[in-house]
Amino acid sequence: MEPSLTDTLCTRCGLCCDGTLFADVELAGRAEATRLEVLGLEIEDDDGTRALLVQPCRALEGTRCGIYAHRPRCCRTFECRLLQDVRGGAVGVDRAGEVIADALERIGRVKELMARLGQRGRRLPLRERCAETLARETPADPEVIRRRAELEAAMSAVEALIRTRFLGESGPDGPTCPSSPGRPGSDAPW
Question: What's the DSSP call for residue 15?
Fold first, then answer.
């Protein structure tokens, strides 16, 4: 039996869970939020009306979901644009793997630059970690100024790649969470 697309691609990626694509995930309701809190996941109440699963998800183990059988409804139904394109035949599996590898490499470079600028492993979504790093006071050191410019350019390239290949958007504003359903009945492992 051949592995599913989600087994082949999603388990190499994890960007929908690690804080790269989304800052949070909108949950179906208080019961789902309570169930996830019992499992040890961090939940926030957004203005008292919505429960949000904070990203990066604490259930993410490498690129796999540690609570796969108990993951939230939106995680069960979300499919990134890349996976949709592979399912629809617009992108081959090998090419999709290359896109994932490229994204992970670029994200690794952003994290490396943030570390060089003093950012130390806070559990924040990638975009927020980068913004926090860039918000620090800049010394007049030309090397720091160069690294900051390099970080801004690297993060801009990551965001463009994420928007076009993983979120399927052409504009600068993306969704804040994977709350819009993907293909009904999807069984994606994240």
Answer: T
CB 39: neighbour CB atoms within 10 A? 13
Which contiguous run of DSSP H or E holds residue 85?
Answer: helix 81-87
Distance of CA 84 to the CA centre of its chain: 16
At 145-161, the pLDDT tens digits run 999 999 999 999 999 99
The secondary structure of residue 4, as a DSSP letter, is P
Q: Contact at 8 Å (CB) between 62 and 14?
A: yes
pTM of the model: 0.83
* pLDDT tens, residue by residue, 100-130: 999 999 999 999 999 999 988 778 999 999 9
Residues of 110-149 as b/e, b for ≥16 C-beta within 10 angstroms? Answer: bbebbeebebeeeebbbbebbeebeeeeeeeeeeeeebbe
